[in-house]
Design a protein that fits this description.
The protein is mainly α. The chain has one domain. 75% of the residues lie in helices and 0% in strands. It contains 6 helices and no strands. Helix 3 packs antiparallel against helix 4. It is a multi-pass membrane protein.
């Protein structure tokens, strides 16, 4: 399935942990994950909505910030125990951006997009170096 060039299989499994654990995933794991997901979701939703309100955003932005990170972490995450979602630290900078400059929520979306672009650029540099120096 994977080419044997530069140990591509190991490199992909190292950076995409879903390739390691998904083949061994069982129904028992799915039930446990569903219970944990419901529990965390019930905790995360009011927290995300409250953080969005404190930042001066609509509740939908809080829900997006709470869910999007978790969905991405399913593929790229490397540990089973982690807390994801909006934080007070990010909230304070986002609120500062909106209130100080009297900007709209479009700037928050742009800020989020640009942070994602910088993260992708850093990942590309890291992967390039990993291929050159395995």
């Amino acid at each position: 399935m994977f080419p044997k060039v530069f140990g591509a299989k190991k490199l992909l499994q190292k950076h995409l942990p879903i390739l390691v654990w998904l083949p061994r995933y069982t129904a028992k794991d799915a039930i446990s994950d569903a219970i944990a997901g419901i529990t965390v979701g019930l905790t995360l939703m009011p927290q995300a909505i409250a953080y969005a309100a404190l930042a001066g955003l609509g509740p939908q932005y809080g829900l997006y910030s709470g869910c999007a990170g978790v969905l991405v972490y399913i593929v790229f995450g490397s540990t089973k125990q982690i807390a994801l979602g909006p934080t007070a630290f990010l909230l304070s900078f986002t609120a500062l951006l909106i209130t100080r400059e009297e900007k709209s929520t479009d700037y928050v979306v742009l800020l989020t997009f640009l942070v994602g672009c910088v993260w992708k650029l850093c990942s590309a540099v890291f992967y390039s170096l990993a291929m050159l120096y395995p």
